[in-house]
UniProtKB/TrEMBL annotation:
InterPro entries documented for this protein: DUF8044 (IPR058357)
Keywords, alphabetical: Membrane, Transmembrane, Transmembrane helix
Protein known as: Uncharacterized protein
Transmembrane segments: 7-24, 30-50, 57-77
Record-linked Pfam families: DUF8044
Amino acid sequence: MQFIRGQVAWMLAMVLSLTLLGSFSYELFFVLSLIGLLIITELTAPFAVAPDWRRRLRWIILVGLVGFGIIVIQRILEILPPEVLPW
């Protein structure tokens, strides 16, 4: 439950911060939520025993990293001039 509370608190704080700054976007929220997930995963990691749910958390992190990679590729393609792209 400590992990869930931490993640929800992080995500709520990010929504409020981004809204107050006037820079809310789903991509930015996704990236900041992924960063929070990685931080909270490390901060709540047990030393001796790894529960089953923590092993399944690796798959969620992997999906998040793939999503992050897609966002980065899209941003790079937006920045590049059309002459550089082969299509």
